Amino acid sequence: MKWASAISTSASLETAIQEVTQLATAQLGATPDLALVFVSVAFASEYARLLPLFQTHLPVAHIVGCSGSGVIGMAAGYPEEVEEGPALSLTLAHLPNVDIKSFHLSAADLPDLDSPPEQWSELIGVAPERQPSFVLMADPFSSGTSELIQGLDFAYPGCTKVGGLAGIESFNRSSGLFCNQTLRREGVVGIALSGEIVLDAVVAQGCRPIGELYRVSEGDRNIMLKLEQDGEGNAAESQTPLDVLQNISKT
Questions:
Q1: How far apart are CA 134 and CA 176, in angstroms?
Q2: Residue 245: is its pLDDT beyond 60?
Q3: Which of 16, 62, 107, 241 has a beta carbon 3.0–4.6 Å from 88's, enabling a disulfide?
Q4: Which residue from 68, 67, 61, 54 is spatially nearest to 24, judged by alpha carbons?
């Protein structure tokens, strides 16, 4: 199994595709079985050209991706994140003994939530005993995303599902979803990976903890009202979030 990633910040879509394809292919050093593509909303007017251009440079059976407000990829051996301006990221994977199923689903395709799990597994096209792992990318304005995740949990209990929402171009509020040779504007695109592969879900907040540990002891929906300092399983004191911030600022 091998993975490779590359990013380009060229303002030309053709140049960006050539750059990431050449860099990622050279890094991979093997035949790619899967390509994950993420393109910044700066290229929104050219989404329809992306997959045909990739097909001329990258013969791969499964190519899935979406638009993004920020795009991350590897540049000169280091991760680079581009939050504004044009950017195109390509991740290639050589996955021997791994079965790959790429798909696009809309709300109209989904079974009723009262349907048996077999209807959900038939929709995906992967038997539950294969224990697939899923990577999903969804249009944030489409309905049915929550229902799809519930259905996958029902049909594939214990299987890992990761993903996110596609970025929105602010002018016409549209996103881009890419699946093999087709540009989609709504629904969910994804891949199911089964065989000799294990996918773990890890949440990285990009920050380091500071100060003492606290736990939320009182709240109202998404608002924290009281925190308790808990050193060794015993609440030592109760404070408001403002008290905690003031104590941190003093240190």
A1: 19
A2: no
A3: 16
A4: 54
Owner of token pair 């104590």: 247
Average pLDDT in the 130-146 region? 93
Structure tokens at 166: 């596609």
Least Cα distance to 132 among 121, 140, 144 occurs for 121
Q: Which of 88, 101, 97, 99 is nearest to 58 (CA)?
A: 88
Burial 100-136 (b: 16+ CB within 10 A, else e): bbbbbbeeeebbeeeeebeebbebbebebeebbbbbb
pLDDT of residue 240: 64
pLDDT at 135: 96
Rounded Cα–Cα distance for residues 49 and 146 (Å): 30
Surface-to-core class of residue 246, CB atoms within 10 Å of its CB (0-12 exposed, 13-18 middle, 19+ buried): exposed
Sequence-distant (6+) residues with CB within 8 A of 209 are: none
Read off the pLDDT band of 229 (50, 70, 90). Answer: confident
Report how far residue 93's alpha carbon sits from residue 2's, in angstroms, rounded to the nearest whole number. Answer: 6
Residue 166 has pLDDT above 60, yes or no: yes
Q: Which whole-number Å values give the CA distances from 52 to 137, 178, 219, in the listed order?
A: 20, 11, 51
Q: Output the pLDDT for position 213.
A: 79
- CA dist., res. 135 & res. 199, Å (int): 9
Taking a C-beta distance cutoff of 8 angstroms, is the pair 72, 7 a contact?
Answer: yes
Q: What is the pLDDT of residue 207?
A: 63
Beta-ladder partners of 138: 165, 188
Q: What's residue 208's pLDDT?
A: 67
DSSP bridge pairs for 245: none
> Residues, the chain, total?
251
